[in-house]
């Protein structure tokens, strides 16, 4: 259990759902983890549960000044930054005709702008040590169509990942995207969607939705030195949906 021994990681949106699962596994594998979230109460409580190797910082991932603070605080506290997991994300369960400009801008800022800002400031810290791993959580909807706003931004994360991987490779910084399918998180259970999720699960070749821990194991691999020759790549974890 030491795949990340001596590593320092930042994970956004980590007070619940997949981000919380990633943070728990990273710490179990020997990392020191900075968890960030807009929800300070949940974040601080979860950091205490994780123990001395976790630090919570309140963050609006769409804020450039917040990103500067998170990266600077991480380096000041732990001496370096090895891994960034851009995990924070939202969706809005509305049709094209009902999505407002405010809705769309909010999705863009949290899902897409945050990945740009996080990569920019994390890479500035990582290039000084000539190594690093940035993991951008996209989605199955970064490969195939889905909800308006969510799909658009997740395709953008996929493209940005490839562009950043090419630019940062000579600094020893790897940038990859992960594309989860339907995962049991608060996001997919919003608005009483349980019946729809259950029906959709029947269409998945593996016949079930995934647990967050299953995605975390993929994130661990991509973030770790085990994936040392992978950059600009897409790692799909969708139960076989995209193979149909």
TrEMBL record:
Alphabetized UniProt keyword annotations: Lipid metabolism, NAD, Oxidoreductase, Steroid metabolism
Regions annotated as coiled coil: none
SUPFAM superfamilies: NAD(P)-binding Rossmann-fold domains
Superkingdom, taxonomy of origin: Bacteria
Molecular function, one GO term: oxidoreductase activity
GO biological process terms on file: bile acid metabolic process
Family according to the record: Belongs to the short-chain dehydrogenases/reductases (SDR) family.
NCBIfam families: PRK07231.1 (NF005559)
PANTHER family: 3-OXOACYL-(ACYL-CARRIER-PROTEIN) REDUCTASE (AFU_ORTHOLOGUE AFUA_6G11210) (PTHR43180), NAD(P)-BINDING ROSSMANN-FOLD SUPERFAMILY PROTEIN (PTHR43180:SF28)
Protein name: Cyclopentanol dehydrogenase
Taxonomic path: Bacteria, Bacillati, Bacillota, Bacilli, Lactobacillales
């Amino acid at each position: 259990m030491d795949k990340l021994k001596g590593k320092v990681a930042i994970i956004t949106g980590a007070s619940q759902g997949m981000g919380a699962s990633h943070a728990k596994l990273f710490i179990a594998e020997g990392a020191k983890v900075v968890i960030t979230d807009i929800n300070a109460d949940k974040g601080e409580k979860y950091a205490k549960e994780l123990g001395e190797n976790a630090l919570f910082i309140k963050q609006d991932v769409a804020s450039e000044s917040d990103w500067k603070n998170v990266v600077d605080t991480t380096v000041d506290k732990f001496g370096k930054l090895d891994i960034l997991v851009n995990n924070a994300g939202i969706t809005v369960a509305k049709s094209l005709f009902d999505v407002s400009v405010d809705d769309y801008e909010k999705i863009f800022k949290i899902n897409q702008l945050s990945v740009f800002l996080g990569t920019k400031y994390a890479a500035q810290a990582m290039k000084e040590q000539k190594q690093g791993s940035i993991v951008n959580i996209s989605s199955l909807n970064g490969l195939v169509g889905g909800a308006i706003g969510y799909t658009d931004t997740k395709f953008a994360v996929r493209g940005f990942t490839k562009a950043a991987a090419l630019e940062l490779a000579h600094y020893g910084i790897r940038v990859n995207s992960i594309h989860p399918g339907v995962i049991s998180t608060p996001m997919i259970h919003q608005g009483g969607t349980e019946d729809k999720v259950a029906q959709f699960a029947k269409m998945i070749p593996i016949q079930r939705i995934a647990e967050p821990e299953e995605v975390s194991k993929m994130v661990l691999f991509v973030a770790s030195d085990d994936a040392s020759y992978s950059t600009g790549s897409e790692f799909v974890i969708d139960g076989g949906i995209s193979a149909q």
